[in-house]
Amino acid sequence: MRNDSFTLAMRWIVGSLCILWIIYMLGLAFGVTRAEAPAWVQALGSIAAIGVAIFIADKQRKDLRQQRIDEIRIHQDRVLKGLRSEMTLAFEGVKNIAADIASQYASNKLTVYNEHHNVYVFDAVHEVVLSIPNDEIRVQIIRFYSGVRSFARELEIHSQRVKNTEDTGTIRDSLREDQEWLLTCAKDLADIKQSFDDAMEKYVFLEDDHAASANT
Questions:
Q1: What are the φ and ψ backbone dihedral angles of 204, each rounded to 5 degrees?
Q2: Residue 110: phi, psi to the nearest 5?
Q3: Do residues 65 and 207 touch, judged by C-beta distance below 8 A?
Q4: What is the pLDDT along the chain (216 residues), one digit of tens a residue?
Q5: 91 Cβ partners below 8 Å, 6+ apart?
Q6: What's the pTM?
Q7: With contact defined as beta carbons under 8 Å apart, do 40 and 27 qualify?
Q8: Residue 50 and residue 188 in contact, taking contact as beta carbons nearer than 8 Å
Q9: DSSP letters of 50-116?
Q10: Rounded to whole angstroms, how far apart are CA atoms 46 and 36?
Q11: Residues 6 or more apart from 44 whose CB is under 8 A from it?
Q12: How many angstroms separate the CA atoms of 216 and 214, rounded?
């Protein structure tokens, strides 16, 4: 960026000198005395120097803004890829457990689950998620992780109830309600994950969305 600005500055200086020389010669041709000419050249040179300084400052500001936008784009792409991978893994775990629960529900059986749904990526980039300008993607990410945590929490409660139950022949109503809730939650997560994937397919990074962040 500095080399580009230096090159542009040199072009402006060389161009300005050429213009000053032309003005100087025209001034002489139209009656400006040799004694007055240096003062005119100095005045015009000062104006040209101010113009060069303004141009370079504006160019550097635009370059810096574009650099920040590019950094935001790269970081956001990495965050979204990481989240998408984590969401896929988390959903596969939920889907497998839901299939097992559905089988138990039909056969009137119970199982204790020890699975853990860790969401390290989301926890690490939570603030970045909140700054994503696309409302659909941001909302679906937050909904999905909220749903996963609710599923994990309810699964843990359900497993504890299964451990404590003394009736091994018939599933009590509360445990059957647990299973129904977990199956409903898994279905909701499937819908949220699909909405997120659809939004990601249509998502286009727009520089204007990040202009405010780039200017800070």
A1: -125, 130
A2: -130, 150
A3: no
A4: 455 556 656 666 666 667 666 666 666 565 656 676 677 667 666 776 777 778 778 888 888 888 888 888 888 888 888 888 889 988 998 999 999 988 888 777 778 887 666 667 788 777 778 878 788 898 999 999 999 989 988 988 888 888 777 555 455 677 888 889 999 999 999 999 999 999 988 887 665 554 445 455
A5: 144, 148, 189, 190, 193
A6: 0.66
A7: yes
A8: no
A9: HHHHHHHHHHHHHHHHHHHHHHHHHHHHHHHHHHHHHHHHHHHHHHHHHHHHHHHHHHT--------
A10: 16
A11: 20, 23
A12: 6
Of 109, 87, 94, the closest CA to residue 162 belongs to 109
Instruction: Give the integer Cα–Cα distance in Å for 77 and 92.
Output: 23
Q: Which tokens belong to 65? A: 């803004």
Amino acid of residue 133: P
Question: How many residues appear in the chain?
Answer: 216
Q: How is residue 198 written in tokens?
A: 């659809």
Backbone angles phi, psi at 95, to 5 degrees: -65, -40
Q: Is the Cβ–Cβ distance between 140 and 69 less than 8 Å?
A: no
Which of 212, 213, 159, 208 is closest to 182 using CA atoms?
A: 159
Dihedral sign from CA coordinates of 194, 198, 204, 209: negative
Amino acid letter for position 16: S
CA dist 11 and 133 (Å) reads 40
